[in-house]
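Listing S7. Sequence submitted for prediction.
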Amino acid sequence: MKPVYTHPESLYPVQTKYCAGCGHGIITRIICELIDEMGIRGKTVITNPVGCAIWADLYFDTDTVQPPHGRTPAAATGIKRVLPDHTVICYQGDGDMAAIGTAEMIHAANRGEKFTTIFVNNAIYGMTGGQMAPTTLVGQKASTAPYGRDPVGAGMGYPIRVCELLATLEGARYIARGAVNSAANVRKTKRYIKKALEAQTRGAGFTMVEILSQCPTNWGMNPVQSVEWLEKEMIAVFPLGEIKDTLHAAEKGGAQ
């Protein structure tokens, strides 16, 4: 009998530290599957900063670097420029990337740095106690917004749509948004990540895949409820799909 589904070689066979129902484990798995399928394990570097992403080096059986909070794009820039033949992946959460790391992220994308960012968006600070994140939805409760995010009355602002923001920058070549709340969305998300990684190997410029992910613990839900909430509430604010794809034009005219 021919096996059709096996444990990825790039994924350590260890027990996860992620909460029950968290989407990080699924995301980690599909990245490892792609690393194996593309045959790039020996030349892959994962950069994972503070946040729930901090655990990533426990699971990826590749080279990993843990930059300071928010500085992942800066570290990835240095690694990729020194090792241009390597696949460099930033594995970041919404608090890290869209708050303390906003400047790093925007300028790396604007420069067209040739690495790939995997941006895990669960609309909350997952590791530090469920505080409001830049991506927290209007009305969504958090430990620092117990009555819900109020953009006007409490001056909390609106959720930042990172994909749409980065899509305005010329150095960004491929920007997509997926989710891991259903088997169909997992398959689509894997295709987006593969496209981004393949573009990186061709030197196409900055690529990013945002992934909407469940956080049952800090949303105050059980895993089933969190999947339903993501489908009903998050996707309405953060629509799925390929937000920007200029890969063909970039390769035809020469990658920047």
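Caption to Listing S7: primary sequence and predicted structure tokens for the chain studied. Residues 132 and 253 are 42 Å apart (CA to CA). DSSP finds nine helices and seven strands in the chain.
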